[in-house]
Amino acid sequence: MNLTNFRFEVDADGIALATWDMPDRSMNVITVAVMDELEQIVAKVAGDAAIKGCVVTSGKDTFSGGADLTMLEGLGRQLGAMAKSEGPGKAMKAFFDGSRRLTQIYRKLETSGKPWAAAINGACLGGAFELALACHYRVLADHDKARVGLPEIKIGLFPGAGGTQRVARLMPTGDALQMLFKGDQLRSRAAKSSNLVHELAPAGEVVAKAKAWIAGGGKGVAPWDMEGFKNPSGKVFSPAGMMIWPAANAIYRRETSDNYPAAKAILHAVYEGLQLPMDLALEVESRWFAKILRSKEAAAMIRSLFVSMGELNKGARRPTSVPPSNLKKVGVLGAGFMGAGIAYVSALAGLDVVLIDRDQESADRGKAYSEKLMTAQIAKGRAKTADRDALLARITATPDYGKLAGCDLVVEAVFEDRAVKAEATKKAEAALGKDAIFASNTSTLPITSLAEASRDATNFIGIHFFSPVEKMMLVEIIMGAKTGDRALAVALDFVRAIRKTPIVVNDTRGFYANRCVGNYIKEGHLMFMEGVPAAMIENAARMAGMPVGPLSLTDEVAIDLAWKVVQATKKDLGPAAVDPAQEKLLDELVNKAGRLGRKNGKGFYDYPEKGAKSLWPGLAALQPKKLDADSIDVQELKHRLLVVQAVEAARTVEEGVVTDPREADVGSILGFGFAPYTGGTLSYIDGMGAKAFVALADALAKKHGPRFTPPKLLREMAEKGETFYGRFGAGAKKAA
Amino acid sequence: MADAFIYDAVRTPRGRGKADGALHQVSTLGLATTALTAIRDRNRLDTKLVDDVVLGCVDPVGEAGGDIARAAALASGFSQCVPGIQINRFCASGLDAVNFASAQVMSGQQDMAIGGGVESMSRVGIGASGGAWPVDPAIAIPAYFMPQGVSADLIATKYGFSRDDADAYAVESQKRAAKAWEEKRFAKSIVPVRDPNGIALLDRDEHMRPSTDMQSLASLKPSFAMMGEQGGFNAVAIQAHPEVEKIIHVHHAGNSSGIVDGAAAVLIGNKEAGARAGLKPRARVRAFANIGSEPALMLTGPVDVTKKVLARAGMTISDIDLFEVNEAFASVVLRFMQAFDVDAAKVNPNGGAIALGHPLGATGAMILGTALDELERTGKSTALITLCIGAGMGTATIIERI
Ligand SMILES: CC(C)(COP(=O)(O)OP(=O)(O)OC[C@H]1O[C@@H](n2cnc3c(N)ncnc32)[C@H](O)[C@@H]1OP(=O)(O)O)[C@@H](O)C(=O)NCCC(=O)NCCS
Ligand SMILES: NC(=O)c1ccc[n+]([C@@H]2O[C@H](COP(=O)([O-])OP(=O)(O)OC[C@H]3O[C@@H](n4cnc5c(N)ncnc54)[C@H](O)[C@@H]3O)[C@@H](O)[C@H]2O)c1
Asked: pTM score, two decimals?
């Protein structure tokens, strides 16, 4: 055998040990070469009479993260190329065969006649866990970092190398479906009690235990290949099955609004597979897997949620000329809602934080927020008291700007008021070293103009957090007209240190995220004023894939804030810039009805002390007219809510606010939960095709107004058949 | 086209569909033969004249499986030349069986046929036959499958029927059924179910609770709330009808159709066949229709199919003197009355399945007989019989006395 990714040795008892240990990689992943070698190993073990059985383990601290996703992406490209050269029928067959190669290797292993045991020393996920599942025995390390799981669903795929079939034959159907749906990773004890592994052992002993099982006469036959095997939940068509399947189908819809084909494919594969013997069951699973692998949802989700997010996290936009900044101490101005959160995430990352407010009491209140969050973590068993104490010790709460001396970076989060911000900037800079970077967390004021208060606009930048800071993973970095590379590099290093995902955008009113979100919220308000029932607006939004409806979101950000934004827009851009229907609605809610949103328990919804929120019954009286629900095209509502955001995203590209489609996409999913199955705002357009999108947007514009009118850029792309990734993606020449 | 005449209609009483129900000891076959022998004997029918026996049965498995209609014909001592076929269109099967028999007669391919149905819900159990619709993701998901009760609650929510509306309707159903029994309005059609010795096991509908009032119903808990919430079905309902914020669960054991056992048979024939058998027609089948309706609401098919059958018959809603709308759930009938703005007095004047029970495969044939008896009792002419159906369908039949 010619192996580079595995070491293979046979001990004196005739038990083989295949140690997966890829050179030049910190973690094992399944590649074509790995599959080639595994196939050889399986053949060797099966064919060599001197070998009694085989243990598979890893030479790294983790077992493996699963399949190399770029390999899967490659399969799709091959299909396209082959379809052109050899016709679609033949290409599809070849694609199907290629996509099930891993399944077949694992099945050969499982039916080789020799006993196989997996010695799982650390995290073992996805395709790697499917390898373990194909082994006849699994020993899992019992340490804290050991995990097994099938997280494929999170990027629009599902376990397609036998995972659905083997899990559904090890666990009761309901539990199996839940595990596959959620993509949860199980710690050792849960894995054992779920019947997914046979034995737990200290990491150092997993190989010995696995060998012992083989030496002790472990059989090389999977339970499902034995006579008389019964599924844990019995037959699909049985009283027990009737308790499981109708609810499983309903819960699928509840959780996905039928937008996630991979989740549905899990249902198909398990439902059909459980009615078949293993070989056919695996074939059926492969058929669904090939279909999902070709889906635009999988392609979009892999690209945005795995590839692009990874690249952005690693600093794709960081100027390479600037050496790494060694951040130690940051200042946070304003210990209010945002400042408190920023201080917390910074301290959590091990940075020293100077948290400033106007008086000691306010500063202390901001620090108390960190204490509250850490205490909650302790209660959940996720942190220790010592962690809390250490974190709090890193935060200095004070009204004294002088304490900012020595900070590498200051993030300003004082009132959204130019004068206040200017004064805070001046006071901070008086204490800061010349090289310190000053960042504003403003959500509406242009960075370029705020930079005028600074002594050095090249060191002035926007770092825009989303609330709640500790939960939201996106940070929008805003380049003022004069912002320099070093400011950008430091800002990106800071975001990386606090383990969030950055996007870099140019200065404009609302930057990127809030422009899209503002449109989304406004569309909900306009629908309401057209007479669409409030519940229908909210439900249509969620069915389109948004995490919260636009009315609910208004309540969250506060209706009076929305009112203020509309007033400010009117003042700055003139009355034509606001929609009178929206203004009227907000006026009625805020100024006449005193409904400010969740913060006063009264918004579009009522928020009772106990129990769930429900729509305010008084809403209907605010609608100038009411449409008959059955006459409303729900698909059109869904389109409106997504298109109005996507078209704004396209405008930001045209205006040069967003320059990289990865940032628009990742930013939209992380920042405001834009329908993840689309891959984000621009992938939504690419997935539909610019031509179809322009046609849709034009039709909506004709019916509902120019806010849907696509920008010139999109028309041009439609004409040329271009995509955002083709035109602006990595490698493409920078346009706009 | 030949006319299809109704020569007679019989039904068993409906036994409570539980282990303590009076008909639990009677097999599905036994129920079906009770109806078939009765219709033969009371009409002194030479069964050689019968071209087919069509029986509805919704869970045709186990003792009810494998073409229960042929088994019942043979077991009833019908001539061996009488074939049988079992059909299934869920809750309307019994009415569809009558329509199929009528259609054969109208088309001239048969002269006389029996349509009817049978269900022993206590012995076979609702849902026992399984099926792809609730289970296979390939249909359950696109069809917005949910249990009937959740659909009924969706109808109530969407069309604005409160718990009180549904309960008031149920109380009225009980009152009307009690009065009908008191005045022996069902007497013409009821055939007691007997043991081998001729001892009557049941001669009266057993599910009724005449003392039901708003107060007694108020104590009942909604039957489909937990299923709707935990089974994910409320979310399915809302996605199908997104103007609904939350499902209001109004249905419970007292305003839903009862689970019962029973069978029915209706004798259909053309004019000549009736003459040959020496029988006088009681009514004519004027028109019938089937339709598919919105599958998530599922149980609003009676509205759609009534529109369709009226149009086919060239009639309007005001041409109908009497409606039998199966009381699968209170909201089904409330929606029907709302949609057509019909006088509640004309709808189910002798109560319905809420009081009497709904033996799935048999009900359609039973309520057709009930309508016929009522037309004769009141001297009215035209009745429309309709049932809602699983997976979103409706069946309706218009009969008129001659
Ligand atoms: C609604 C339904 C689930 C209730 O089933 P159930 O709980 O078995 O019903 P029960 O007959 O046992 O009645 C439950 C309780 O309500 C009480 N109850 C029923 N009717 C009552 C009435 N009219 N007044 C007062 N109490 C009543 C019973 O006494 C019983 O009380 P208990 O629990 O104290 O004994 C069932 O009847 C059903 O599913 N019906 C619809 C059938 C169907 O779907 N058919 C197809 C239509 S498309
Ligand atoms: N709330 C959000 O969701 C959100 C999101 C993104 C960005 N922002 C931006 O963050 C900034 C702060 O917003 P917030 O919601 O935290 O407001 P907040 O009112 O909760 O907090 C502001 C804090 O700044 C303090 N402050 C005011 N003047 C000061 C000064 N001169 N020196 C020191 N402290 C001073 C106040 O005492 C207060 O504690 C604003 O620019 C806002 O636009 C807010």
From this structure: 0.95
